Amino acid sequence: MKIRSITVFCALGYPANRLLLQHLGIFANHARALFTQEGFEVETLRLALPPFSEFVNPRDLSAAAQNLSIEAHAEGFEYLSLGPALTTDPEAYPRIPEALAKTHGVFFSGMLTTPQGEVSLPAAKSCAEIIAQLAGQSPDGFANLNFCASANVPPYAPFFPAAYAASEPPAFALAMEAADLAVSVFTAAGSLQEARANLIEEVEKAAQKLEAAANNLSRMYGYDFKGLDFTLAPFPEVQSSIGGALEALGLPAFGLAGSLFASAFLTDTLDRARFTRTGFNGLMLPVLEDSGLARRAAEGTLTAQDLLLCSAVCGTGLDVIPLPGDTSADQLYPLLLDVAALALRLGKPLTARLMPISGKKAGDPTEFDFPYFANSRVMPLRAEKTTGLLSNAEIVPLARRQPR
Q: Which of 68, 72, 115, 284 could form a disulfide with 77 if both were Cys (CB 3.0 to 4.6 A apart)?
């Protein structure tokens, strides 16, 4: 188990408040040292800002992203999120691809939903267009690693690209990488009841140490500790595969019947653990970041529709899904509508990080040379251009389903 990210949230303004940024860097590096002393490896320090249109004119986004990235990196932050494009500012969305083309280590998202619980069809079209445009910025589709479409995601979720701050004093949260914990617990368990009890015990034990150190930091610096996101993020090694953890429960292969139950069992178990929560705290199924999921996708056992179905019982959505290079914005748009509908009707945050790969068709092998990816095969997408009412530029309310 590792801390994937100590994510610091702050409204720096633009030009950035340099004194405040220096203070944030001192805090983040101190936090890394303190958590390391407590026995936790810290992979990255990340800085998340409010939605960019709140502090910079979207026309100036590229220059602002370059300057803020350099300044944040100088203070020790490996990655920077400039937050989401908002449905209230449709001109912000098309500025994102250019800003990503001119920066490194900068992340963005685009909101599909409004704070009033509505799906914005124009925003979904804009996000689909961003994904299609980013796919052409590098031959392997890698630019889409730094962008996701977000639905119903609140501030202070520490996982990138979805992370963003509110315009409030500085705060911080922890994003955990703990799929290996589920693998070891589920492999050793003799029953589902034992698997559940042992995972809860291990999560709570780790959370107690993490929260004690975080609360100490909060007292020292006056930064609000927002909590832990114990979404069991994987790493592309067998012992850190969330797909492998779910198969350890008895699934022949993740993606077959029974996968939904296994996903629900895991997320229900996490729900029962006691700790301070922020972000998703669900089930992360990133195909290219998980050796087990990558293998099942390559076999054809696991599809994009299977992953979306599992999101219904609490996940983070669709993450690093390799798609055919000729996937159009018109095909991506209805898939994003599905993600937004699930998020609002079920009252949960969901995202979509989709990666069309130029020159590749469904079934072709991926060829990433990236230590955080496990290669797989390009996954087919069953989607076509919508017509009629679904092609309108409407804002559509979707209320959370109420129990009868």
A: 72
